[in-house]
Amino acid sequence: MTTFQTTIRPEYERTLEPFTAVPLSRGLPWYRQLWQQGWLRKAAILLALALFWEIAARFQDNDLLLPTFLSTARAFGEAVASGELPGKAAVSLSVLLQGYAAGIVLAFVLTTLAVSTRLGRDLLETLTAMFNPLPAIALLPLALLWFGLGSKSLIFVLVHSVLWPLALNTYAGFRGVPETLRMAGRNYGLRGLRYVVLILVPAALPAILSGLKIGWAFAWRTLIAAELVFGASSGKGGLGWYIFQNRNELYTDRVYAGLATVILIGLAVEGLVFTTLERLTVRRWGQQH
């Protein structure tokens, strides 16, 4: 009779390296690791656009129609060094922030009413259907009649450009909040404004941030267009007035420098404000990838 003996292997514990301690780019060449940086890829795109601009301008060979990138950069540097462009940008941004803030407050009030009462929902749907398709710049003649030549006219059209897209996005985000979260808020006794602020706003934050970005873009281009139409506000001209004035004097390089300033401010707001806000909120909370 054969007897089988089972050998019991000794137990041991293996300590695993934490997953977060292992770099994802291990084993990649240095240039591949460098290319993983988003800022570098965006900088490469901007550099390629500048190179294309320079080549196209030299091929055109007409500074009145299309100045070179280098001449535009020179005009931009001179305007910044003299303080002219920063001053114009400060005038435009001060008006923009007032209209943007007012539009955010009104959009929050309308959407709060819409999710609280049936009449508020009907009011929001009716007003957005009426005024959202209406271009903000089309209201500028009425604003000039009502408020005169001043910052109040600009703020009025800015509120119109911000209010409706932000209200629509916020309301859509509120309607997309899961019913489980809604029931949890009601079980804790949340009603009215506390229910909106503590339950609906955090859950709908991705849609709200999208509305804020859309509203910012609409407000920024509306402001520049309005300044181009009627120029200075209260004796002070913004970036639109700077572009319009230099176009009349045929300083095309300064016109492009003003347009570049508008673009750079837009890139700065997108990269520094909204991207940071998304990283600290919705991405950190796992609501956005």
UniProtKB/TrEMBL annotation:
It is a multi-pass membrane protein. It comes from the Bacteria. Residues 85-278 form the ABC transmembrane type-1 domain. The chain crosses the membrane at residues 95-115, 127-148, 154-174, 195-218, 224-244, 256-277. Keywords: Cell membrane, Membrane, Transmembrane, Transmembrane helix, Transport. One of its GO terms (cellular component) is plasma membrane. The keyword Ribosomal protein does not apply. The keyword Isomerase does not apply. It is found in: Cell membrane. GO terms for biological process: transmembrane transport. Belongs to the binding-protein-dependent transport system permease family. This is NitT/TauT family transport system permease protein. It comes from Cupriavidus agavae. The lineage of its organism: Bacteria, Pseudomonadati, Pseudomonadota, Betaproteobacteria, Burkholderiales.
